């Protein structure tokens, strides 16, 4: 009677651990167990002893379980009573499930419920390695998705500028250009044959435009906000293409006007400081 | 030069002032919208009724408890209505403060434009300002002068740009 109870307890424990393995395999995307793969299950009864303390020192062997092994419905795999030194208690079973120690147990290939168990395989499982498998699988999936779409896998050069950095650079260059203009004009020389502070500014803006059109195409400039005028034009029935051209021109004008303000302001400051 | 700096600081102050409308409104509301004696009495009455209610057991004297609760609810409703009225007045005040800031800004600028219409803020060699000399000299019209109108535009543009950069 007690043997029967022990066997039933063992069967219950086995079923619980099998389900845990099945859940893990579902996460890993492994297929279900088939009967033919039961034959690949290893048999090593003497090495099994989940209750012994030396199990912690055992070498962790990761053998990828076959689908047959991982099915929760593979009732052929049952632990053998003779493989265990003592009958495991339900408490130790649950503790084993919660730890990351290698869980070693044997199963049977005969009928799902029977009092007699036959050793026919050995199965090692380590949840830490399973977690590593999950990450590896995810990485594999990502790499697969990338290889499947070659058009999207083009390596783009990292953009060294973003809109904010470009904005700051513009301000700094305006200030430096105004300092340069003020220094040169104070010496009595004319810039570009004419003593005008606006020509260096014009040259600077032309250089910026050339730079934006050639090297900094990827950097999207700071978008100017839509104004009431553009909203009114849209309501008047202006074409979207024309609105786009209008927005582009107005944004250019706004940026040039803003740059000119910075340039002139800094010129006046440098003039006050240097004179 | 002093005038140029003064006008720049003025523009800077008026650019930042709308951010502090809430605080200004609170300060003004504390002075204007004080709590009346009627409301204070109402609050004291509610407090007394709640104290009396806390001394009564709801199971032993339910009728009296319910009567007190009805009184408390009625007074709370009156207090809430008065509170809503005050909140509405504060929101109107906030709008008025915002509009007032802009009107004050415009009035000061117009006053300065009228006073400094023919006085330049600074001078630069006129050949340096070629070909935009007349635009820079607005509204003075003098050659090589930097006018108030042009300087106000420049100051506003610089402040706006710098605020956009630093996220202020």
Condensed summary:
Chain A is mainly α and 275 residues long.
Secondary-structure element order of chain B, as H and E? HHHHEHEH
First CA to last CA of chain A: what distance? 110 Å
Count of domain modules of chain B:
2
Number of helices of chain B: 6
User: Which consecutive residue ranges of chain B, at least 5 long each, have pLDDT under 50?
Assistant: none
Structural class of chain A: mainly alpha
Q: Give the strand line-up of the largest sheet of chain B.
A: 1-2
Envelope shape of chain B: rod-shaped
Strand content of chain A: under 5%
Largest beta-sheet details of chain A = none
User: In angstroms, what separates the terminal alpha carbons of chain B?
Assistant: 27 Å
Residue windows where pLDDT falls under 50 for at least 5 positions of chain A: 33-62, 83-127, 144-153
β-strand amount of chain B = under 5%
Rg of chain A, alpha carbons: 38 Å
Oligomer designation: heterodimer
Total beta-strand segments of chain A: 0
Signal peptide (chain B): 1-15
Keywords (chain B): Endoplasmic reticulum, Membrane, Signal, Transmembrane, Transmembrane helix
Organism (chain B): Elysia crispata
Main location (chain B): endoplasmic reticulum
Report on the structure:
- Chain A: This is Calcium signal-modulating cyclophilin ligand.
- The complex is a heterodimer of chains A (275) and B (168).
- Chain A is mostly helical.
- Helix content of chain A is 53%, strand content 0%.
- In chain A, helix 1 packs parallel to helix 3 and helix 5 crosses helix 8.
- Chain A is elongated.
- Chain B has 168 residues and is mostly helical.
- Chain B is built from six helices and two strands, in the order H-H-H-H-E-H-E-H.
- Chain B has helices spanning 2-16, 21-32, 37-55, 62-115, 133-136, 148-166, and strands at residues 122-123, 145-146.
- Chain B has two domains: 17-115; 119-168, no CATH class.
- The interface between A and B is medium-sized, with 20 and 22 residues.
């Amino acid at each position: 009677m007690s043997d029967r109870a022990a066997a039933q307890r063992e069967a219950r424990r086995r079923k619980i651990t099998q389900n845990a393995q099945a859940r893990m395999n579902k996460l890993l995307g492994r297929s279900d167990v088939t009967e033919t793969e039961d034959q690949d299950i290893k048999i090593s009864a003497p090495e099994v002893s989940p209750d012994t303390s030396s199990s912690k020192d055992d070498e962790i062997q990761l053998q990828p379980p076959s689908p047959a092994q991982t099915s929760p419905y593979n009732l052929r795999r049952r632990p053998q009573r003779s493989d265990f030194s003592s009958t495991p208690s339900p408490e130790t079973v649950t503790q084993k499930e919660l730890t990351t120690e290698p869980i070693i147990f044997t199963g049977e290939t005969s009928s799902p419920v029977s009092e007699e168990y036959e050793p026919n395989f050995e199965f090692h499982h380590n949840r830490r390695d399973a977690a590593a498998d999950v990450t590896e699988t995810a990485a594999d999936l990502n790499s697969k998705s990338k290889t499947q779409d070659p058009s999207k896998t083009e390596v783009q050069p990292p953009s060294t500028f973003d809109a904010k950095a470009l904005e700051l650079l513009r301000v700094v260059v305006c200030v430096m250009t105004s300092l340069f203009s003020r220094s040169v004009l104070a010496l009595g020389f004319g810039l570009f044959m004419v003593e005008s502070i606006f020509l260096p500014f014009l040259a600077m803006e032309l250089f910026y435009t050339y730079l934006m059109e050639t090297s900094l195409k990827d950097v999207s400039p700071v978008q100017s906000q839509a104004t009431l005028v553009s909203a009114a034009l849209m309501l008047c029935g202006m074409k979207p293409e024309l609105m786009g051209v209008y927005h582009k021109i107005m944004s250019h004008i706004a940026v040039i006007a803003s740059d000119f303000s910075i340039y002139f302001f800094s010129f006046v400051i440098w003039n006050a400081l240097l004179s | 030069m002093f005038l140029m700096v003064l006008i720049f600081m003025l523009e800077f102050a008026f650019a930042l002032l709308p951010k502090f409308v809430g605080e200004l409104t609170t300060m003004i509301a504390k002075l204007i919208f004080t709590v009346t004696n009627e409301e204070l009495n109402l609050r004291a009455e509610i407090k007394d009724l709640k104290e009396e209610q806390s001394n009564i057991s709801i199971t032993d004297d339910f009728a009296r408890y319910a009567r007190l609760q009805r009184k408390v609810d009625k007074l709370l409703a009156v207090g809430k209505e008065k509170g809503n009225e005050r909140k509405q007045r504060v929101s109107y005040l906030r709008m008025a403060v915002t509009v007032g800031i802009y009107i004050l800004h415009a009035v000061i600028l117009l006053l300065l434009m009228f006073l400094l219409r023919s006085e330049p803020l600074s001078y630069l060699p006129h050949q340096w300002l070629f070909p935009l000399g007349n635009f820079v000299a607005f509204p003075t019209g003098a050659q090589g002068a930097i006018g108030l109108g042009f300087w106000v535009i420049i100051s506003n543009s610089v402040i706006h740009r710098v605020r956009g950069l630093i996220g202020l």
